Amino acid sequence: MSRTLLFSLLILLLSSLLPTRAIAQKDDLVHRSCLHATYPEICVRTLSSRGGAATPRELAQLAVKLSLARVRKASDFLSQIKGSGRREQGALSDCVEQMGDSVEELNKTLAALQRLRRDADFRWQMNNAETWVSAALSNEDTCLDGFKEMDGGIRSDVHRKIMNVARVTSNALYLINLLDD
Q1: Which of 37, 33, 39 is nearest to 56 (CA)?
Q2: CA-to-CA distance for 72 and 94, rounded, in angstroms?
Q3: What is each CA distance from 51 to 16, 29, 59, 61, 89, in whole angstroms?
Q4: Among 57, 98, 145, 157, which residue carries the largest CB count within 10 Å?
């Protein structure tokens, strides 16, 4: 009877360690991959809280999905702001358009990463993914440029939101570049 109980406890203990080991391996991948990212703390924090990335490619895809979600959220936020004048309203409208372009580019990036294979097209697919994420970053910069000459709360709100998006997008680009190694 004692043997059966001991065996049951051993099975229970081992089964509880398996998921922990899988989580530790995922966290190791995140920490190793984010170590030299432009924004390593943001990289680790945002990707560690998401599950499912077992390979560097899956982690890069996850980073792009996270960036895409942030762009959409920022676009929704910007769409709800009312500018105090024509110039401010024009900058907001341009920024929403830039975020829409970023959504398209990040969707293209995600599709390229999902098709990515180490074959004759690998370099071409990587170039496409890197180009589209870089274009999304440029859109985010262009959005901020529209507010450079303005003062006030809207400018700081837009800056805060877009910088948040740009940091996550920059980390996604870094993780994509790691796939080339």
Answers
A1: 33
A2: 15
A3: 18, 12, 9, 12, 39
A4: 98
Euclidean distance between CA atoms 179 and 181, whole angstroms: 5
Whole-angstrom Cα distance, residue 60 to residue 175? 5
Q: What does each C-alpha distance from 156 to 42, 69, 148, 151 come to in angstroms?
A: 20, 21, 10, 8
pLDDT at residue 180 greater than cutoff 50:
yes
Is the CB of residue 137 less than 8 Å from the CB of residue 171? no
The closest of 38, 36, 58 to 47, measured between CA atoms, is: 58
Distance CA 174, CA 156 (A): 27
pTM: 0.82
